[in-house]
Amino acid sequence: MATRFGNWLDERLAWRQVWTAIFLRKIPKVNWFYTLGSASLFLAVNQIVTGILLTIYYVPTPDHAYDSVQYISTQVQAGWLIRGLHHWGASTMVVVVTLHMLRVIFHGAYKYPREVTWFTGVVLLLTVIGFGFTGYLLPWDQKAYWATTVGTRIAAAPPLIGDTILRIVRGGEELTAITLARFFGVHIWILPTVLILLIALHLYLVIRIGISSVPKRED
Amino acid sequence: MGDEQRINRRNFLSFATWAIGGIISIGMGIPAIAYIIGPALQRTNTQDWIRLGPTVKVELKTPTLFKFTIQRKTGWIVNEEEVSVYVLTDNGRDFIAMSNVCTHLGCRVRWISDQEEFFCPCHNGVFDKEGKVVSGPPPRPLDRYEVKVEGDQLLVLGG
C-alpha cells in the first residue's frame, strides 16, 4: 500500500530522484569536521521551531516584553525548555557556524568552483551574528538594555554618517519602544527570510557541485 | 544467518538516523504541544467570599444592585474587573444573589423596575425578578451566587 502510494506520488513528483540527489549522492571520503555544516542546519531548524513557539507568548513592547518572557520561563508548561533551547541554541549556533567556516578555510574548500557557496556562507555568518545582536535585546532586562545601548553606539563610530546610522538603528535618539519593536521585526521577519533563502542557495550549491575532498600534501 | 547478513552498515545507519530523528521530533513535539495548549488547561478560579455590604441596603422584594471589583490575572497581566450582583430578599433574612450576565450570550442584563423584570438589550431576553426566563432566547435562569450573612454583612462566593 505504502509502496503503491509512493509510486503514485513518484510518477507525479519524481521525489525519488530528489531524494537520491540530496541524500544518496556520492561524497569523497571525509572526516567528522565535514558534519559541521549539517550541525549548523540542525541548529538553524531548532532556532526556527523554538523561535516560532516563543512568539506565541512574547510581546515586543517595553510594558510587556520582560513580563511575557518571565511568564514563558516560569508559568507556561515547557516554556523554560523552549526558551532554553532558543537561548543556548543561539550561542551554540555562533560557535558551530564559526567552526564550520574555519574547516572550510583550513581545507581550502572555498576555491573554484565553490566561490559562491563561500560567499553565501559569509553572508550567512553575518546573518547569524545579526540574529544574536537583535535577539539579545528582546528579553528587555538590564543586561539586554545596556548591551544594546553599547552595541548600537558602535554604529556611531564612523565619521560624518555615524550619528545618522545610530539614529536609524535605534529608531531615534534613545533606546525606546521603537528600538525594541524594530529589533523584533528584524529578528523574526527580515533575518529569517535572508537566512532561509541563503541556506536554500547554499545547500543547492553543495548538492550541485558536491563537497570537496580532504586536500592532500601534493594538492 | 541470512537475517544477520541483511543488517549491513548502510541499513544500520539508515535505521539509526530515522530512530534518532524520531526521538528528537517526539522529544520536541510533546513539549511544544504542552507549551501551546498549557494556559488553556489552567484553571485559576480561586473562589472566595466577597463582602457586598450591609444587609439593610437590600430593598425588600425588589432586586438591588451591588458592585464589587475583583483582581483577575490573565497571563502576566493583572486586571481589575467590576462584577455586578443583584440581590433579592422577601423577608430581610433569606437572600438570593444573581449574576447580571445573561445566560444567552453573556451581555449584561438590567432591572427594569416599571415592568418588574430583567431585560437583556442584546437579544431581548427577559427574566423575572427571581431570574427565571420569561421570554427570549436565554436557555436557563440567571446564575446564582452562594450567599451568607455574617453579622450585618452580606457576602457572596465569587472570584
Q: Your description of this structure?
A:
The complex is a heterodimer of chains A (219) and B (159). Chain A is 71% helix and 0% strand. Chain A is an all-alpha fold. Chain A starts with a helix and ends in a 10-residue tail after the last helix. Chain B has two helices and eleven strands, in the order ααβββββββββββ. Chain B starts with a helix and ends with a strand. Chain A binds chain B through residues 49, 53, 56-57, 64, 67-68, 70-71, 75-79, 81-82, and chain B through 28, 31-32, 34-36, 38-39, 75-77.
List keywords for this structure.
heterodimer, A: 219 residues, mainly alpha, 9 helices, 0% strand, B: 159 residues, alpha+beta, four-stranded antiparallel beta sheet, 11 strands
Query: Which structural class do you get from the secondary structure elements of chain B?
Result: alpha+beta
Distance between the termini of chain A: 51 Å
How large a portion of the residues of chain B is in β-strands, by DSSP E?
35-45%
The whole-number mean of residue pLDDT values of chain B reads: 88
SSE succession of chain A: HHHHHHHHH
Main pleated-sheet profile of chain B: 4 strands, antiparallel
Strand order of the largest sheet of chain B: 2-3-4-9
Number of separate helices of chain B: 2
Taken from the alpha-carbon principal axes, the silhouette of chain A is globular
Spell the H/E element sequence of chain B.
Answer: HHEEEEEEEEEEE
